[in-house]
Amino acid sequence: MSKFSEFGNDLYTGKRSFDFVGRRKVFYGIAAVMVLLAILLPIARGGFNFGIEFRGGSEFRVAGAASSSQQLAVDAVKSVEPDSVPLVSTVGTDSIRIQTEQLTDDKSEEVRVALAKAYNVESADVASSFVGANWGADVTGKAINGLLVFVALAAVLMALYFRTLKMSLAAVLALVHDLIITAGVYGALGFEVTPAAVIGFLTILGYSLYDTVVVFDKIRENTFEVEFSETTTFAQQVNYAINQTLVRSINTSVVAVLPVASILFIGATLLGAGTLRDIALALFIGIIVGTYSTIFIAAPLYSHLREGEAKFRKGEAKVLASN
Question: What pTM was computed for the model?
């Protein structure tokens, strides 16, 4: 632990430094590949696995099932609706969830009875519900609107706080990067996208933005009147700020990821709580991606956007001349 503290102190004082700004093209390339994969892999799988709340349909839950066999549920549904392709999953240790296209009331009752018989439980132990397609479309629209409003407000507030549109632009591009990659992981691995997952997406964007603001605040402090310096350039001071906040970003991420990982394990494995699992999964992926984007994308990109300004070019020429 003392070595890590010493490492952090060396970064903060400038005794040790990583050239994040100088190697930004490498990081841009990595980000581009990750974004491309996040787009192509879900397409190759046939798209996202949207939950019933988005696509609409009928859902059945068998409580206290003696067997965890999913084939029993598939056979029970097909005995009533042969053309149906049910999605079956285990919830907790003794519950089975079955989702189908929307069925009529009569068909739903037949499926419910068939499931009770297949799993040897009372018919009262099989709950049924349905979500209309219109309601699902409404949820989808509101989720997209919420995301767009969040990004727009974040961009405006950052521009006002830092008094430069370029910081806001760099932060928003990093947010978009985080969202695409997190959504891409969901699509590539076939995780179900539910309203709880969307809440998780919005939460990790807030976390990523918080981490970015902390780093940008240090950058603003370090680059104040840097154009008048004869010993250091704008890019060097931005890189210095990233190094100064590096350990803090890592520590914050570790502290955030550990409890989220615990919730993910408890929600998915022990309790079988779908909402807990969906939120925690989005948070787990997003926190890691958000930390990466703050350090390797947002800050170097901001430096890239401003280095070409006349006052910083003159400052850099002055530093080179003095050396």
Answer: 0.79
